[in-house]
Write a structure and sequence with these properties.
The structure is a single chain. Helix 3 (72-81) packs across helix 4 (85-96). This protein is 41% helix and 19% strand. The chain has eleven helices and ten strands. It is globular. A seven-stranded mixed beta sheet has the order 6-2-1-7-8-10-9. Strands 3-5-4 form a three-stranded antiparallel beta sheet. Helix 6 (143-155) links the parallel strand 1 and strand 2 (164-171). It has two domains: 5-96, Chemotaxis Receptor Methyltransferase Cher, domain 1 (Orthogonal Bundle), CATH 1.10.155; 107-300, Vaccinia Virus protein VP39 (Rossmann fold, 3-Layer(aba) Sandwich), CATH 3.40.50. It has 301 residues and is α/β, with parallel strands linked by helices. It binds S-adenosylmethionine. S-adenosylmethionine binds next to loops.
């Protein structure tokens, strides 16, 4: 991990501070903004619109200060050339991503999952060993994945005791994956949780809420960049994918690329859910639109 400026400046790189006081606030020039947004876009598909220039500036400023680098241009140079650049990219993702999430954020989707989708999928696989793979793509700190686990444990597993459920949460931000793996949440995360679930599946300790060990054991989390085609190929054979509230940060081109990969990663008859404010209109014609009470989903095949 990067925590000392000494490790950031091997002699070969020269002095990154060109006489400017690093405590001074640096401004992101229009040219530097163009370079930065291109760089970030190539890495992870996130596209900073013109009106988000100040957001990007303030997010990058924190890293620049931390590393004691004197300009946005030199921070970019650092990320392209420094031996520790892969480590620093993790910090960059942490700085630029927005990780807003909470338990039971989209109840109609969860209801559709347990009332229609899972019974439908399992009815096509009669007898023998039954397995279900559900992927929360861009899971942030795991609230969505754990909500799915609670719903399945409550409403599906009693009816299908032999069902093997695999729930995977992935994100590009290591800090939120760490929180997801710990399974300890703040009041903010549980604000929309139905009381019956809160009582049954959380233990309150001080100001925190600890997820029930059984629910925790149903879910695993790992790093995955949705814009990395090779990494995406590892996520094949999913039955249901939740990819909510992340496409809004992409542009048309990166949305098309990512949704295309999600489609490839679904089993035939599998389903994709995206966020309330998101649409596949103009992004993909491959899916069949399916209506459920108070929500819609996208079906493959
Ligand atoms: C607003 S949160 C949505 C969390 C959850 N899906 C929900 O709807 O509540 C968006 C998440 O997308 C992640 N993200 C952004 N770009 C990504 C990428 N290229 N690959 C994987 N995750 C990404 C962010 O780190 C963040 O945690």
């Amino acid at each position: 991990m990067l925590n000392s400026t000494a490790t950031l400046r091997p002699s070969g790189l020269g002095n990154l501070n060109f006489g400017l006081n690093s405590s001074q606030e640096q401004k992101l020039t229009p040219q530097a903004f163009e370079q930065w947004r291109g760089f970030i876009y190539e890495l992870c598909g996130i596209y900073f619109q013109d009106n988000k220039k100040y957001l990007l500036e303030s997010r990058l400023q924190k890293r620049i200060k931390h590393l004691n680098i004197d300009s946005f241009e030199n921070y970019l140079h650092f990320l392209k050339t420094h031996p520790t650049r892969e480590e620093e990219k993790k910090q960059l993702y942490e700085a630029i991503t927005i990780n807003e999430t909470y338990f039971f954020r989209n109840q109609p989707q969860l209801d559709a999952l347990v009332a229609s989708i899972v019974p439908d999928l399992l009815s096509n696989r009669p007898g023998g060993f039954q397995k279900l793979k559900i992927w929360s793509a861009a899971s942030s700190s795991g609230e969505e994945a754990y909500s799915i686990a609670m719903m399945l444990n409550e409403l599906i597993l009693p009816k299908y005791p032999n069902l093997k459920v695999e729930i995977i949460g992935t994100d590009i931000n290591y800090a939120v994956i760490d929180t997801a793996n710990k399974g300890v949440f703040k009041e903010y995360s549980i604000r929309n949780t139905p009381p019956i679930y809160l009582k049954k599946y959380f233990e309150k300790e001080g100001n925190t809420y600890i997820i029930d060990p059984k629910i925790k054991s149903m879910v695993s989390f790992k790093y995955l960049n949705l814009y990395d085609a090779n990494a995406m190929r590892m996520m094949s054979k999913s039955d249901v994918i939740f990819c909510a509230n992340v496409l809004i940060y992409f542009n048309q081109e990166s949305k098309i690329k990512v949704v295309d990969q999600l489609y490839n990663n679904l089993n035939q008859n599998g389903y994709l859910f995206i966020g309330y404010s998101e649409t596949l209109h103009g992004i993909s014609k491959a899916f069949k639109l399916v209506s459920f009470p108070k929500t819609i989903g996208y079906k493959k095949g």
